[in-house]
Amino acid sequence: MERKLYNLTEKQTEKCAIADAAQPEMPTDEEFKATWKRQHHGKSTGWGLGKRQWIISNMSRGTEYVTGLGQGAVDAANGLNYQELDEDKSYNLGYYRGYTNYESNRRGWDAATRQRFDKLYVNC
C-alpha cells in the first residue's frame, strides 16, 4: 500500500507561519524559577512541571507539529503501523497525538469533514 502524505491547508499554513515567527526563546532555569516564584506567591515547588508545560505549549504551535498531527491521523486511518520518521521532536509529538487520538477525534468531526478527509487521505 502506498503511504499518503498529509498536506497543510492554506489556513493551517498561515497560522503556522505566524506561530513559527513568534517562537519565544527558551528561558534559563534560573529565569523560569524566578518567574514561577513571582506567579506562585514565593513558592518554587512545581516549576519543573510548569517548564514542561511551557515547552509542550510552544512545541505544539508550529508547522512541524501540525504536519505530524495530520500525518499521524492519515497513517492511523489507513491502518499503517505507528512510525516516527522525523528527528524533529515537535513533529514526533504531533504524530503521536494524531495517531493515537485519530478515532476519538474523528467522532468529533462533522460529516463534511469526515468525507473530505476520507476523499483526500484514506486508501480505498
Overall description:
With 124 residues, the chain is an all-alpha fold. The chain folds into two domains: 23-61, no CATH class; 62-124, no CATH class. Helix content is 65%, strand content 0%. The protein has seven helices and no strands. The protein has helices at 10-21, 29-39, 47-59, 63-77, 89-100, 102-108, 111-121. Helix 2 packs across helix 3 (47-59). The longest helix has 15 residues, at 63-77.
Task: Summarize, please.
This protein has helices at residues 10-21, 29-39, 47-59, 63-77, 89-100, 102-108, 111-121.
Question: What is the topology?
Answer:
Layout (H helix, E strand, L loop, with lengths): L9 H12 L7 H11 L7 H13 L3 H15 L11 H12 L1 H7 L2 H11 L3
Give helix % range. Answer: 55-70%
C-alpha Rg (nearest Å)? 18 Å
Q: Encode the helix/strand succession as letters.
A: HHHHHHH
Give the averaged pLDDT, no decimals: 91
Strand content bin: under 5%
N- and C-termini, Cα separation:
10 Å
The biggest sheet amounts to: none
Task: Pick out its properties.
single chain; mainly alpha; elongated
